[in-house]
Fold this sequence. Notes:
Elements: H1 11-22, H2 26-36, H3 72-84, H4 92-112, H5 114-117, H6 125-132, H7 141-151, E1 155-161, E2 166-173, E3 183-187, E4 193-195
Protein name: Ubiquitin thioesterase OTU
Catalytic activity: Thiol-dependent hydrolysis of ester, thioester, amide, peptide and isopeptide bonds formed by the C-terminal Gly of ubiquitin (a 76-residue protein attached to proteins as an intracellular targeting signal)
Organism: Genlisea aurea
Amino acid sequence: VSPFSWIKHNLASAFLFACLFVGSTPQQRSSYADASEGGIRKEGFYCRNASERKKTVLKDYSVIGIPGDGRCLFRSLAHGACIRSGKPAPSESRQMELADELRSRVADEFIKRRKETEWFVEGDFDEYVSQMRKPHVWGGEPELLMASHVLQAPISVYMYDEGAGGLISIAEYGQEYGKENPISVLFHGYGHYDAL
Length: 196
C-alpha cells in the first residue's frame, strides 16, 4: 500500500494535497513526503504559498488549546459550536462530553448518508463507522464534512502560513448552511486540531 493510497479514495483530500504539494518548492515537497511516511517535522506542516494563491491571511486570532486525546477534532468543533450559538466556552469535562456526543452523531450521519459517503471511506464502511465511534480514534476530513451536517453550520479549517505570519483557510465544509460565523478550527498538519 502506497503512503498516498488515501488520495484515490478522497477527492477533497487529493485536492488539498495537490494545492499544498504542487504549489510548493522541491525542498518543501521533501518535507511533506517525509511527513506522509511517518516522519514529523518539529514545527508541523505549513503552507508557504498564501501570497501566490491570493489567500486572505488571518492575523488577529486566538488559539484555544485542545488536549490531544484522540478527541481533538470533536472537542474543537464542540467548543466552536458553543461559542457560535452564544453559549459560554465549555469546561474541559463538558467539552469532552459534547465531543463524544458529537462523535456519535457524526457516526450516525455517516450511516444516514451512506450512499454519498461510502465511496470516500477507505476500507470497509461498517468497520470505519464502528471505529469512528471509539473515543480515541482521530477524526479528519470525512468527519468534518459530516459534522457540518450534524451541526448545520459552516466549518472552516485553518493552517498556519509561515511566510505570511498568520492563518489561511485550507478547507470549508457546510457552505450550504451559510458562510457567516463559521465554526473555525486550526489544523496543525500532524493530526492535531485546536479551536479558534
